[in-house]
Design brief:
2 strands; single chain; 138 residues; 3% strand; mainly alpha; 56% helix
């Protein structure tokens, strides 16, 4: 049996018990089959979502989100390590300042990621419904 190369339709003959499997289909028959398949998929709740038709934009958006989240995490860790190194350098507490502030930077980076993804809400004042860093009226 010759392999299909994609340049010509497969003429290997009928497949299984499908009636007329080896003949060429007209465009009307293909359209009716396509509509029938779409109706069956819709009945089962399976199908293409309108937003998933453009996969390129979705992938680019995912990559942008990943870069944003990783840079926020790395920035927190590097800031903690830098401040810890400076604390050790000037206070002579080596290596405890670096260790403590590196761990705090790790925690801050993790918290930034959780806030960016919406898993943790920011501090809000229950009376005003706004962020607590906003000045309250006097």
């Amino acid at each position: 049996m010759p392999l299909a190369t994609g340049k010509e339709p497969d003429k290997s003959g009928p497949v299984g018990d499908t009636p007329g499997a080896g003949r060429r289909l007209t465009s009307d028959e293909l359209e009716s089959r396509s509509r029938s398949l779409a109706a069956k998929l819709a009945a089962r709740g399976v199908g293409l979502k309108p937003s998933s038709q453009d996969k390129g934009t979705e992938t680019a958006s995912g990559v942008a989100q990943a870069v944003k989240l990783s840079s926020e995490f790395i920035a927190g860790v590097l800031a903690g390590a830098g401040l810890g190194w400076l604390a050790d350098r000037f206070l002579g507490t080596s290596p405890w300042g670096l260790i403590v502030l590196l761990l705090l930077g790790f925690c801050a980076g993790t918290l930034n990621i959780l806030r960016s993804t919406g898993r943790v809400a920011e501090n809000r004042d229950p009376e005003l419904g706004k962020s607590s860093d906003v000045k309250k009226p006097e």
